[in-house]
Structure formats: C-alpha cells, structure tokens
C-alpha cells in the first residue's frame, strides 16, 4: 500500500480524475476542519509512489549577487539549496475544504466546497487562486458534485439547508432548492 501525508491538514475528500487514471485530488482542512485553512492537493500516482503535482514547480532562479560561488559547494549542498529555494504553488484557502469534484468538461478544473459557504473553481494549470468563486450559501458547504450529463453544471449542498445548482457557462446560478 502506498501513502501520502497531508502534513498539518486532514483529508476530507479524495476523487480520481475522470480524464487521467493516475491523478487524484484531495480536499483537506487544518485542525480537523473546526477552524483554520484548507488546502487542495493534486497528486499523481507513479511507480515510485504518490507525488504532489502542485508541489513540483520549476526551480526559482538563483540570485546573481550571492557573496559566494555555489560551484564550490558539493552537489548535495547545492541540491539542498535549490530544493529549499523552489517556488511552491498550491491551492490554499482561507477556510476548510470539505468536498471536491472534477469538472466533466475540462481535465484541469476542480470545484471545491468550503467552510465559509463558498464554492471555488480551480484550474490546476494555474499557480494559485481559484478562477471563479461563488458565495451562494450562508453556512458551510459540505458537498459538491459535477453533473455527468450536463457537463457545464454542478450542484452543492450546505448546512444552511439549501441545494444550489450552478451552470458554469454562461456563469449563472440556475436554481436554489430548500
């Protein structure tokens, strides 16, 4: 069995990508989802184990005005410096993430349910921040699901007792059910 540790965050939902059998997404929350931030992990399943795809950013450029030359250091020290200076694009949110669903019409989009009553749409090819955010619920959103037939539509449910149906193109709130 292979595993991946979501250090400092507790997993709430995990879903396979409908486009790639080696890609999964995890919605997580700090402090067991009671208070604190959320994080969306995009993970790749490889023969070497699970790797965090959103933590594999290109290395940041070296500072040209270093007082010493890095060429004098042994390779492990240089590698450690490069790894510590890399950018870490990730999808952090202000509140816990409780559920997620992969878009049925776009291989790189994921919608998440957040503890602040919002629903966020992320494009995993971008560095950070959601591409769209809806603040339709008054309490925590605990479930989202993409429509398998009408691929531009998803639904969400919340502790406020409502179910929202959202059409992403054109972006509209289709209906609200109580």
Biggest pleated sheet: 5 strands, antiparallel
Shape: globular
How many distinct beta strands? 13
**Overall residue-averaged pLDDT value:** 82
The end-to-end span amounts to 42 Å
What is the quaternary state of this protein?
A: single chain
Strand content: 35-45%
Topology as a string of helices (H) and strands (E): EEEEHEEEEEEEEE
Helix content: under 10%
How many H/I helices?
A: 1
Structural class: mainly beta
- Low-pLDDT parts are 56-70, 77-89
- Radius of gyration (Å): 19 Å
Molecular structure report:
Helices cover 6% and strands 42% of the residues. It is mostly beta strands and 178 residues long. The strands form three sheets. Strands 1, 2, 3, 4 and 5 form a five-stranded antiparallel sheet that branches. A four-stranded antiparallel sheet has the order 6-7-8-9, with no helix packed on it. The longest helix is centred in the middle third of the chain and has 10 residues, at 75-84.
What are the salient characteristics of this protein?
mainly beta, four-stranded antiparallel β-sheet, 13 strands, 42% strand
How is the topology of this model organized?
Layout: E1 10-16, E2 23-29, E3 38-46, E4 49-52, H1 75-84, E5 91-93, E6 97-102, E7 109-114, E8 119-123, E9 132-134, E10 141-146, E11 153-158, E12 163-168, E13 171-177
Antiparallel strand pairs: 1-2, 2-3, 3-4, 3-5, 6-7, 7-8, 8-9, 10-11, 11-12, 12-13
Compact summary:
Helix content is 6%, strand content 42%. Strands 1, 2, 3, 4 and 5 form a 5-stranded antiparallel beta sheet that branches. Strands 6-7-8-9 form a 4-stranded antiparallel beta sheet, with no helix packed on it.
């Amino acid at each position: 069995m292979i595993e991946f540790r979501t250090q400092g965050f507790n997993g709430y939902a995990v879903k396979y990508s409908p486009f790639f059998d080696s890609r999964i997404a995890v919605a997580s929350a700090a402090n067991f989802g009671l208070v604190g931030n959320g994080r969306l992990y995009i993970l790749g399943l490889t023969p070497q184990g699970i790797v965090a795809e959103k933590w594999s950013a290109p290395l940041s450029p070296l500072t040209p005005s270093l007082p010493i030359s890095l060429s004098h250091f042994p390779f492990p020290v240089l590698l450690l410096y490069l790894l510590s200076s890399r950018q870490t694009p990730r999808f952090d949110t202000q509140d816990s993430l409780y559920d997620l669903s992969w878009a049925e019409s776009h291989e790189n989009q994921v919608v998440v349910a957040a503890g602040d009553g919002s629903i966020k749409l992320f494009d995993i090819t971008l560095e950070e921040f959601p591409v769209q955010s809806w603040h339709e619920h008054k309490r925590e959103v605990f479930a989202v699901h993409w429509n398998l037939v009408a691929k531009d539509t998803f639904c969400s449910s919340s502790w406020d007792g409502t179910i929202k149906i959202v059409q992403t193109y054109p972006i509209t709130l289709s209906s609200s059910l109580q």
